[in-house]
TrEMBL record:
<dbReference type="InterPro" id="IPR040354">
    <property type="entry name" value="TCTN1-3"/>
</dbReference>
<feature type="transmembrane region" description="Helical">
    <location>
        <begin position="602"/>
        <end position="623"/>
    </location>
</feature>
<protein>
    <submittedName>
        <fullName>Tectonic-2</fullName>
    </submittedName>
</protein>
<keyword id="KW-0472">Membrane</keyword>
<feature type="domain" description="Tectonic-1-3">
    <location>
        <begin position="369"/>
        <end position="554"/>
    </location>
</feature>
<comment type="subunit">
    <text>Part of the tectonic-like complex (also named B9 complex).</text>
</comment>
<comment type="similarity">
    <text>Belongs to the tectonic family.</text>
</comment>
<keyword id="KW-0732">Signal</keyword>
<dbReference type="GO" id="GO:0060271">
    <property type="term" value="P:cilium assembly"/>
</dbReference>
<dbReference type="Pfam" id="PF25752">
    <property type="entry name" value="DUF1619_N"/>
</dbReference>
<feature type="domain" description="Tectonic-1-3 N-terminal">
    <location>
        <begin position="88"/>
        <end position="192"/>
    </location>
</feature>
<dbReference type="Pfam" id="PF07773">
    <property type="entry name" value="TCTN_DUF1619"/>
</dbReference>
<dbReference type="InterPro" id="IPR011677">
    <property type="entry name" value="TCTN1-3_dom"/>
</dbReference>
<keyword id="KW-0325">Glycoprotein</keyword>
<keyword id="KW-1133">Transmembrane helix</keyword>
<dbReference type="GO" id="GO:0007224">
    <property type="term" value="P:smoothened signaling pathway"/>
</dbReference>
<dbReference type="InterPro" id="IPR057724">
    <property type="entry name" value="TCTN1-3_N"/>
</dbReference>
Amino acid sequence: AGSLPAPTCGVLNNDTGDWSLTVTPSVNASDVTVRLKRAPSSCSSNETGSFSESPCIVQTLLVSASRNSACLAHLLIQVEIYANSSLAHKNVTAIPDPVHQPLGPCPCNLTAGACDVRCCCDQECSSNVTALFRESCLTGVFGGDVSPPFDQLCSARRPPGAPGWFPFLCVQSSLANSPFLGYFHHGAVSSRPHAAAFDAYLHTEPKDMSDSGYKQGDPVMTAAQAYLTVPQVSLAGQCVRDAPVGFLQNFDVRCITDLDAYGEADSVLDAGIKDGTAGGIVIPHVVYEEAADLGQVLAGAETLLSPGSAPRNVTVEGHYLFRWNNRTISEMHVRIVRATVHALQKGTMTQRFTVKFLSYNSGHEKERSGNPGYQLGRPVRAAHAGRRDPVAALSLWQPAGRGLCASATLRPVLFGENALSGCLLQVGIEENCTRLRDKAAEILDSLIQATHVATRGNSDDRDLGDGWLEITAAPDPGADPAGGSGKGTCTEVPAQLSIRILTWDAGAVEGIAQQEILGAEKRVSSVTWRPQCGLTCEQVGLFPLSASVQFIQVPARLPRPLTRFQINFTEYDCDRNDVCWPQLLYPWTRYYQGSILRRGPSYARCVAKGLLLAAFSVVALLLSDPRTRGRRA
């Protein structure tokens, strides 16, 4: 027994003889690693036997932590290294046959020829070393319990929920005969080097299969052997600029683009597109238009004036229309809406791109929203009874720029999608209240330019009797209209439009539920408007208008409550079993209402006939009694 040396914290030293120390800082602590730099000659051994009982190195290390030459903490480490340890890697691990014994009987044995700490199943650990960590052995499969007692074993604990006859059918067997044996297979290692996932299926050139005709989803090819690309929105919500157009795949997307990083893409439409036959080319018909109002597409725009800078053109909208016939494309029409901005203009721009495939023999008739029921996400069909052309629409606002009602565009109400939109109406502080009410009501009425909605997605527009419902107007719960009360204050100003649409499942076609509209209601709510003044009142204020659409699913049919007989005696329930005993006397029960197809007898006639038949049966039974015939004799 010796004495430990006094720690010297004045000089920083991470090396002591054959040992080196590494400190890795973490969040709230530091990881200290002590390594042996070289193996001493006393630990070299050529023995291939098991673990040696006597260690070749027994040392005690003192690790000190200091700050500003002052010792703060000490760590005492006792090191024992044996000759046949990880310093000699000459043993070959024998992998057992997984058919007869578990594969990897000691999973925590990670180091060949050395004792792994806390691995009590490691055969390379001596009894003295195992005694150091016997109380902290690794448990479970990783600790060596690779053959746990299975549920069918008699010596195992009875599993929860086991039936009462479990002890009579249990298996008496040893743990070595595990039912998990043989679950492994003999694999082979491939000699081909593994390629990265993003390189294995990377095509440097577009794959053109259009000469034999397009299939749904195939990319449309240009005459220059390239993909026809239109910006699209990915699943992550990002705008992909070079996304190929798929055959017979329609879409309508909007992309937010930074003007500072915007660059006009080269047009690939000059050479045309391939029509789907060998050598066939379709030349697109392109029409260019100028944007009417830049305030609807530009947001946060700033112009940095610079001498000599010329304006530039940007694409605001791109509409692509294809005519298809079987597996070919017969026509292509493109409408490009452009705008002229300053060369150094900053801000964001909202671009819209649409692609639509129409049949070659289809006209310009209005598209259906389903056949026969509505499809989710399709526009709700509407009509106006007082017009020569009854086709109308239910719309919501799609504000842009400052969010003013004057510059807001409209978008259709989509079936099954609840939505909320709004815009801002500029109002002067000296605004006449009657004029403000009329202006707000006119803007709200512009969203519903219809008197009827279609119950089905394929209702005929020319016949309002073919499945059309009138839109009912709910009264405003507010007070009767009044004039202004105070300077700049107006009461009973229409501000909120609420549209409620009732839907239900009308049936199914080929297993697909068909949804129809049961009714539509609109309600306009009024508020009191007064300017929001701080220290001073501005001459122009903003009055918010809002519109909402709510779809309410109505149950198609209320389920009939179960009777006490159906609850207690499920084996006699006609809806759950093939044999229905309660319907043995079905014509005489209250559920029988007569045959509809054959115009059979009603319930009253069936009861009368049944009673008459019962009377005849009783009379026949009495006449056939032997005692009655003996009495006659």
